[in-house]
Amino acid sequence: MVVVDWSKLPTELLNLISQRIDNEVDLIRFQSICSTWRASSVPNHHHILPFKFPLLQTPFFSHQIETLINIDLPFGYLSKHNFFLIKPPQQQQQQTLLRPWLIRVCQNTRGQTQLFHPLFHHYPLPRIRLVLDFNKLSVLHLGSNNFIKDHDIKTDNGKYRFPIKVVAVTCHGKKPLVAVAPAFPPQPLLLKCGDGKWKVILDMSTGFGDICLFKGWPYVVDKIGKTVMVGPDSSVHLVAEPLVGRGNKKFLAESKGDLLLADVYDPDLNDSVWIDLFKLNEKEKKWVKLTSLGDRVLFLGEVCSFSVSASDLCVAKGNCVIFSYSIICSSKSESCILDLDQGRHSPLSDYPEYSNLFWPPPKWI
């Protein structure tokens, strides 16, 4: 058997490989192989490190967007937040059933790692001393989103509007392509960092739904379910026609390689919540209704939505939706669980095997 010395791979090839890494854990593992691999990785990794992002000044309207040149605008730093399920090393998992940990991780402009609750926008976790060796732990990357931090103006300056959601894509070392869901105007926007101009994603309804990354590109859904994909050249492609007579809020999430749409209805007089679920049929360009999630658990948060199998979570069953009630009613911040088998939702605190996935960290860490 021929033994291959992987440290002898060409520097150019290693550099290209590192450009395609899109989260901190994989980059850490890449750089841990040997000194050659570490030295060959991209020094300023646009997929991970914060980069400058121009802030929009109001008032303005859709037809004025493309006249805005970002050179004279103040900026913030766009930081990437990754969502992980951290599990114990394989040998520990085989010995006993150990609870995993759901966490949101980001690096600030000073290179410091920060931990946040996965479902809530502004929810930094208490500072604790943790040593997470990602080379030994089993880590599932569940999704990512971007946030504006360390801006150079005061947040109480009413002239500037911070986006509701932001996703950014870097094409093999090029300047990032950013898709933005602004608070105003209601249409989603595109920005190719470096060219200094905004672009409106046209033909979307006046009510924004959600935005996410799927198969490496931004997908945007409006309030009536019409969905588009943004390509590398900023071109916009229809991927799903609108739904008819559906819910009030839309959320996109990837699940086992499929794109799901959660259609959330406003609470009724009894404060009951219902969610219809759909899967994208890319060939027919339509949303197909799902009757069950199987063993999957779907998480709907203020900042990102994702799904995980019940077996990976070490919980008894799937086919349920865990959500922050604030996505429906901004005055409520509790977490809830909707059991799709029983058709009712309950406080997440009533189900400790699910609520303990978030906090505190498991004892084995």
Structural topology:
Blueprint: H1 11-19, H2 24-31, H3 35-40, E1 51-54, E2 56-57, E3 75-87, H4 90-95, E4 101-107, E5 113-116, E6 138-149, E7 160-161, E8 165-169, E9 177-181, E10 189-192, E11 198-200, E12 208-214, E13 217-222, E14 227-230, E15 236-240, E16 249-255, E17 258-264, E18 275-281, E19 286-289, E20 296-300, E21 305-309, H5 310-313, E22 320-324, E23 335-339, E24 344-347, H6 352-355
Parallel strand pairs: 20-22
Antiparallel strand pairs: 1-3, 2-7, 3-4, 3-6, 4-5, 8-9, 9-10, 10-11, 12-13, 13-14, 14-15, 16-17, 17-18, 18-19, 20-21, 22-23, 23-24
Q: What attributes does this structure have?
A:
24 strands, 10% helix, F-box SKIP23-like protein, mainly beta, 365 residues, five-stranded antiparallel β-sheet, 2 domains
Q: What is the radius of gyration computed over CA atoms, rounded to a whole number of angstroms? A: 21 Å
Distinct helical segment count: 6
Strand content: 35-45%
Helix content: 10-25%
Shape: globular
Total number of domains: 2
Tell me about the biggest sheet?
A: 5 strands, antiparallel
Query: What series of H and E elements makes up the topology?
Result: HHHEEEHEEEEEEEEEEEEEEEEEEHEEEH
Uncertain segments = none
Helix/strand structural class: mainly beta
Tell me the span between the first and last alpha carbons: 38 Å
Work out the number of β strands: 24
Query: Kindly state the mean pLDDT as a whole number?
Result: 77
